[in-house]
């Protein structure tokens, strides 16, 4: 297939490209189309000339490379890269390079709802973004009628989508156990009547699990993520009960019981990474020894200097991620899976060629419902009235949704327009933007460099696995659940 228009005066431009190396060979990742390709020394010479967002016409690039690459080869390389959409011609984006627009309207479905069963927590984690679980509001538990109404709302607003998800969240969701059980039973009955399916997942601090509760979770196939920070001396520094005692012993005991009682269902742990953190590899293998299947790490989002990672610590975190990535690749080549969720998420994105116009699904297919039935952009914005999207009784405020999401779309973040991660990071998390940049609509510019290096590590791992064990990732995607919430 020939490019549509190849006249000599057309403007050629290389955009949104990330270079990385594998075994001393150079590769390019074109972030708009998702194309990953190795290139030889001739292509490298052509593409390097385009770097720094320069534009050329064909005669200009031929002149630029005169004596280095012959004219016919340059033409062939350019045609090939236009076809792959790595180079644009006259600023026209190919079909795979277009950014998805804003799919908002009465028909846009909600498929996942995060239930804040209770705005209260039995722990007082020192860095908690939710103000100790109460989100700065008087403590409130969700009532039975509200929970049932929220399930009905989800069924109705999911429109023609057949598969629904409920995330059981808090505060600490197990503090409202009878409601949790009711949500699961009512959710199953109501979705069955509506000819849909529903799955449940829960994020918990793990302190209030017991045998009867674990049985219930296993019988109802509820996915569980436990929040834990590390070995005893580290966990007990931050994740403390309201009377100041540490939580490691009880969480460790309950986690082991949960893992033993449901061997066929993966149990994940989510680690909040704080200032002065131990080695990520040590943390990871500590959790593997307990028996967890998946371990995900997230830097603390508190702005408090006492907890937040400074720049050298963020780079140390990445060095640690890189080391763990080596273990992941080694195991994958041997056809074994290592549950390092952060890397798995990137590999899944690269493999499926994700193309997003928004940093995440918050406010679109994904919302949070507060104990009183109010709908918020996501769980992190629970009880923040500026980000209220409506309520389950009167429905979604579509005008506000349109206005807010319009302002959050990556096309409104000019610094993201030429970024290689425009369709994967897409400006990043809105809550982080608010915390770190002071504006929910801001791109997360504080972490671009970090993200780029992390993606290069992920790309390197992806290419090596695809070369050595090409079917591994397809099989892994079939097995690995990707957690909706952070
Ligand atoms: S926030 Fe930074 S890394 Fe993310 S898409 Fe925008 S420019 Fe790229
Ligand atoms: S990425 Fe950020 S804005 Fe999106 S759902 Fe997660 S916390 Fe909310």
How would you sum up this structure, described in words?
With 486 residues, this protein is of the alpha/beta class. The protein has a domain at 12-97: Alpha-Beta Complex (Outer Surface Protein A, domain 3). It is 38% helix and 15% strand. The strands form three sheets. Strands 12-11-10-9-8-7-13-14-15-16 form a ten-stranded mixed sheet. It has a three-stranded antiparallel sheet with strand order 5-1-6. A hairpin with a 3-residue loop joins strand 15 (388-391) and strand 16 (395-396). The model is unreliable at 481-486 (pLDDT under 50). Bound molecules: iron/sulfur cluster (2 copies). The site of one iron/sulfur cluster (SF4) has 8 residues, from helix 13.
The count of β-strands is 16
CATH C-level class of the domain at 12-97 is: Alpha Beta
- Structural class from helices and strands? alpha/beta
The CA-CA distance between the termini, in Å, is: 44 Å
Helix tally? 15
Uncertain regions: pLDDT < 50 for 5+ in a row?
481-486
Largest sheet: 10 strands, mixed
Estimate the helix proportion, in percent: 25-40%
Mean pLDDT across all amino acids: 90
Give the overall shape, derived from the CA principal axes.
globular
Q: Which molecules are bound besides the chains? A: iron/sulfur cluster
**Looking at CATH, which topology of the domain at 12-97 would you report?**
Outer Surface Protein A, domain 3
The CATH architecture of the domain at 12-97 can be named as Alpha-Beta Complex
Describe the oligomeric state of these chains in a short phrase: single chain
Strand content: 15-25%
Supply Rg: 24 Å
State the strand order across the main sheet. 12-11-10-9-8-7-13-14-15-16
